[in-house]
Amino acid sequence: MTSVVVPAYNEEQRIGETVAALRALDGVHEVLVVNDGSSDGTSVEAASAGAIVLDMPRNSGKAAAVAVGMRACRGDIVAMVDADLGATAAQASLLIAPVTRGEADMTIAAFTGRPRAKAGFGLVMRLARWGIFRATGLSMASPLSGQRAMRRQVWDALQSATGFGVEVALTIDAARAGHRVLEVPVAMTHRATGRDLAGIRHRGRQFAAVARELWRRRRCLL
Fold first, then answer.
1. CA angle at residue 34 from 200 to 38, to 5 degrees?
2. Closest-CA residue to 178 (of 154, 155, 151)
3. Domain spans, the chain
4. How far is CA 98 from CA 22, 48, 107, 152, in A?
């Protein structure tokens, strides 16, 4: 059984399209949207598109939202995708297939064709890539990618994570536990973080979260 967990915060504009694309995939049995304390119509749009909606009472961050979804889902294979992928969420099938076939224990979306100037994650990306390589020897094209599929046992290997550091933490803990990690090229698209004040704050929070998870795993970086 395959489940898809979608953490969502104020994504009423695209969550319906994202859910519809995921529910149309062969082999996906349930789509769970974890509404992370949104103040808009995210829950209504997700439910209208056919998702199982789990409402969190307040905004608790991505890692907490994903954890809620992981506890509630029933699949032995679980995918996690961002809420703003829209129709391109259908490419989650490329991530699920290698896990289903037994070729990998966790797959990670490696984004293709994305202009570097618009990504805006230079410092965070370099920190994440460096940390993962030092801890595991893996050279990652997209170390911050939140689009993944995995066997449930891989999630169980996660020691701890908070906020936007969950992806880096999960990659390190999974690889060091002996799970096979594979990057898969995809053509997914979502909103790039802007270069305005809100974007700068977001990147700052992400940098801090990644640094915090690497510090917690500092022994394996030496």
1. 55
2. 154
3. 2-221
4. 17, 30, 7, 14
Tens digits of residue pLDDT in 105-149: 999 999 876 544 444 458 999 999 999 999 999 999 999 999 999
DSSP of 86-107:
GGGGGGHHHHHHHHHTTS-SEE
115 Cβ partners below 8 Å, 6+ apart? none
Find out whether 91 and 186 touch, Cβ atoms under 8 Å. yes
Amino acid found at 134:
R
* Cβ–Cβ < 8 Å for 79, 3: yes
Alpha carbon distance 217, 121 (integer Å): 22
| Distance in angstroms (rounded) separating the CA atoms of residues 200 and 193 | 8
Give the global pTM.
0.90
CA quadruple 165, 169, 181, 28: dihedral sign: negative
Architecture in CATH of 2-221: Alpha-Beta Complex (3.90)
Helix 197-216 × helix 166-176 angle, to 10°: 30
Do residues 2 and 28 lie in contact, with contact meaning Cβ atoms separated by under 8 Å? yes
